[in-house]
Automatic annotation (TrEMBL), chains A, B:
<keyword id="KW-0808">Transferase</keyword>
<dbReference type="InterPro" id="IPR001341">
    <property type="entry name" value="Asp_kinase"/>
</dbReference>
<dbReference type="GO" id="GO:0009090">
    <property type="term" value="P:homoserine biosynthetic process"/>
</dbReference>
<dbReference type="InterPro" id="IPR054352">
    <property type="entry name" value="ACT_Aspartokinase"/>
</dbReference>
<dbReference type="InterPro" id="IPR001048">
    <property type="entry name" value="Asp/Glu/Uridylate_kinase"/>
</dbReference>
<dbReference type="GO" id="GO:0005829">
    <property type="term" value="C:cytosol"/>
</dbReference>
<feature type="binding site">
    <location>
        <begin position="210"/>
        <end position="211"/>
    </location>
    <ligand>
        <name>ATP</name>
    </ligand>
</feature>
<dbReference type="InterPro" id="IPR018042">
    <property type="entry name" value="Aspartate_kinase_CS"/>
</dbReference>
<comment type="pathway">
    <text>Amino-acid biosynthesis; L-methionine biosynthesis via de novo pathway; L-homoserine from L-aspartate: step 1/3.</text>
</comment>
<keyword id="KW-0028">Amino-acid biosynthesis</keyword>
<dbReference type="InterPro" id="IPR005260">
    <property type="entry name" value="Asp_kin_monofn"/>
</dbReference>
<keyword id="KW-0418">Kinase</keyword>
<dbReference type="InterPro" id="IPR036393">
    <property type="entry name" value="AceGlu_kinase-like_sf"/>
</dbReference>
<dbReference type="Pfam" id="PF00696">
    <property type="entry name" value="AA_kinase"/>
</dbReference>
<dbReference type="GO" id="GO:0019877">
    <property type="term" value="P:diaminopimelate biosynthetic process"/>
</dbReference>
<feature type="binding site">
    <location>
        <begin position="174"/>
        <end position="175"/>
    </location>
    <ligand>
        <name>ATP</name>
    </ligand>
</feature>
<dbReference type="GO" id="GO:0009089">
    <property type="term" value="P:lysine biosynthetic process via diaminopimelate"/>
</dbReference>
Amino acid sequence: MALVVQKYGGSSVADATCIKRVAQRIVATKKAGNDVVVAVSAMGDTTDDLLNLAEQVSPLPPARELDMLLTSGERISMALLAMAIANLGQEAHSFTGSQAGVITNATHGKARIIDVTPGRIREALDQGRIAIVAGFQGISQGTKDITTLGRGGTDTTAVALAAALEADVCEIYTDVDGVFTADPRIVPTARKIPGISYEEMMEMAACGAKVLHLRCVEYARRFNMPIHVRSSFSTKEGTWVVSDPYSEGTEMEQPIVSGVAHDRSEAKITVVGVPDKIGEAAAIVRTLADAEINIDMIVQNVSAAATGRTDISFTIPATDSQTALGALKKIQDQVGFESLRYDDQIGKISLIGAGMRSHPGITAKFFAALAGVGVNIEMISTSEIRISVIVAEDGVDAAVAAAHKAFDLDADEVEAVVYGGTGR
Amino acid sequence: MALVVQKYGGSSVADATCIKRVAQRIVATKKAGNDVVVAVSAMGDTTDDLLNLAEQVSPLPPARELDMLLTSGERISMALLAMAIANLGQEAHSFTGSQAGVITNATHGKARIIDVTPGRIREALDQGRIAIVAGFQGISQGTKDITTLGRGGTDTTAVALAAALEADVCEIYTDVDGVFTADPRIVPTARKIPGISYEEMMEMAACGAKVLHLRCVEYARRFNMPIHVRSSFSTKEGTWVVSDPYSEGTEMEQPIVSGVAHDRSEAKITVVGVPDKIGEAAAIVRTLADAEINIDMIVQNVSAAATGRTDISFTIPATDSQTALGALKKIQDQVGFESLRYDDQIGKISLIGAGMRSHPGITAKFFAALAGVGVNIEMISTSEIRISVIVAEDGVDAAVAAAHKAFDLDADEVEAVVYGGTGR
C-alpha cells in the first residue's frame, strides 16, 4: 500500500461538477489500495472575488487580515470536496493549514514553510480516512496567525506534506498533460517530457515555465520527493520530476537540451552614462534591493575611454518597474548617471538541459538558430545547465520555435493539449 | 475605561458599505475611551450561498464538513471588518472562534459553548487593538474540530466572550430599536421596552420574539452579564436585559405584563382515541423524544366514560411534522390509538411579565380580551411569569392586538421601526 499526496488547483475544483469529478478520482486512488492525502486550492475565481471585496473596504488592507480573508477560499473548496467524497461512500476529513500542522514564518502573503507536523493527518489516515488539506496556507510559528504562501502555494503545501508524511509520490494535477519541451501554444510540435531532474525543473520554473512553481520544486529536491505532474482530465502518465531521471535502469536517455522556456514578464532598465568608478554599480544594485526588487539579468558595457562612463542594463519583473524607476531617480544626482531607459517589449528565451554540462557548442548552435530567424540577442546569462537570452518581444515566438527545432525537440506528431490557468 | 463587547449580525455587514458603517461605529466606541471586542456574523446571504453549494455536491453532507464550510462565512466578514477599521486608523485583529478560545462540545451544527479562554483577545486589548471575533463558531474540546453554534450563535458568542472577559456590557446590534411589547408589524402601537429581566426575556425568546435567542439570554443570566439590545442604524438607547430592571434606584416601574409574544412556527398533532391506560401517553411522548422532537404544549382530554378512550394533543415545531407523524404511525398498532389529526394553521400567543406573580386575575382578563375579538382558545399552558394559548392562525393578529390593548401596553404615539432579519 502506497501513500499518495495529490494536489488539485483552482481550475480543477472550479464548480460543483468539477469537485465531484475530482472526488471520483480521489476515491479511485483510495480504492486502488492507497492512502490518500489531498491538497486543494480555492475554487476558480474565489480569490479574485475576495480581493475585490477587500478593495471595496480598504485601499491598502493589512497583510494579516488579507491572509485571514483569502484562506476562507480553501476552507470552502476543501469542505465541499470532503462532502463529495463522503457522498461516494468514503470517509474524508478536511483540515485547515493550521490543523494539518503547516508551520510557516510570519511573512504574510508569501510565508515560507518552516516545519510540517502532520499528526492529525497521520491519525486520519490510520483511521482509514482520506485527508483533505487546505493548500496555500499555514500558521505562523510564534504569533500563531494565519498565513498564506503566495503564488504556487498549494503545490508547495502538497510537496511539504508529502515530505513530512514520507509519501511515495506527490501528484500535481493540472490542466495540461505534464511538462512540455516548450509552450505548445507557441510550438505545436512540443513534446511532453517523461522525466526531468529537480535542477532542470527549477531552471524551467525560474525561466517562465508555469506548470510548477520554483519553491515547490526546491522543496521536493530538498526532501528527494518524486513529483508526478499530470492532467486531471486524463489518466495518462505525465512528467516525473525526480533526482535522476536518466539513471541506469530507466529507459530515458539524457537529452542535451530538455526544454525551451520563455518569459515575457520582465522589463529592461538601462542606466545610461554611469561614471566608471568603483562602487557605482553597487549603489544601483543596493537601491533596488532596498526596494525589494529582484534583479534577474544584469550586464555592464565596457567603459568608453573618451567619457569614462558606462551603461548598466538589468532586467526585473515588469510589475516592479515604477518602483524601480522611482528609486533610481532619487539617486541620480548622488550616482551622477545621465538618464534612464526603459523597455518592457522584451522576452527571455532559455535553453535548459543537464546534458549541457558535458556537451560543448550548445551556445553556438543556439545563437545560430536565433540568427537564422533574424532575432537579435540583447543580453545573455548562463548557468551550468541553462543559457538565457533577452530578445525583442516580437521575436520570442520565432526564437522559441527555432531553438526547439535546432535541438531536435520537435515531435513527429502534434499532441492535443488543453490549456487553462491556475494561480495558487 | 469600560470593556464593551458588541455583536453585529449578518444584515449589519451585508456588503462593503454596511461593513464600513459598522467600522465607524466600532471606532467611535473605541475613541470614546473603551476597549472593544466585536463578534460578527457572516455577510448577508453568505450562509445560504454556501448551503446551496453543499447541496450541489452532496444531498446529505457530513455535519463536520458542513461546519467547516459555513465557518468560512465569518472568516470573510471579520477580516473585511478588521480591514475597514484599519482604514480608519485603528488597529484591529480578527480571530477565529478557535483563536478566540471558544471551546464547545462536539455536536456539529448546534454545539454548546463549554468554556471560553480568551487569552489572545485579552492580549490584543492590552496592545490597544480592537479584537474582531468570528461569531457562531468554536472548536470542540476533545477532537479539536471546527463547530458551529446553530441559530443565534453569534449572540451567544458575544455574551460568552463578554462573560469570560468580564466586560461591562454586551451590546447586541440589530435592525430594530430594541425589544418591543409586541411585534410592531402586527401592533403599530407597540412600545420599546426600556428594561426587562433575564427570566422575562427568556420567556419572550422561547415564545417567538426573534430579537434575541434563548440560549444567549440563558448564558447572560448565568453570568449576570447585562445585554443592551439596540439598533445599528441609530444611537438611541435600546432595551437593557438585566437581572432586575425594576430594582430600587432605577426609574422603571414593574409592569404586570411586559410584552405579548406570538409564534406561528408550531403545528398541532392530535392522537385520537388513545386507550385510557397507564403508560399510553408515556409511550407517545417517548416516541417523539426518540425522534429528537421537542414537544412544546401538551393536553389530554378527560376520558369519555363510554369508550374508555381519550385524545392527546400536543404542539411541535412544524418543521418536525413529517418525522413526528411517521414515528407515531409506527406505534399505532402497539398503542392502539384510532387516528392522527394534524393542523399547522395555528398560532401561539403568550403574555409575559414578572409582575404576574403578584397580580391575580391576569388570565381572566387575557381570555376576555381574546373572546372580545372572537378568538377561540384551543390549548393553554402557563408558567409563573407567562400564559400561552394556542389559537387558529387567522386569529393571531387580532388576539395579539387585543391582549396588548387590554394590558395598557399601547403607546401614545407610533414609533417608526425598520425591519429586516438575520439568522445567526
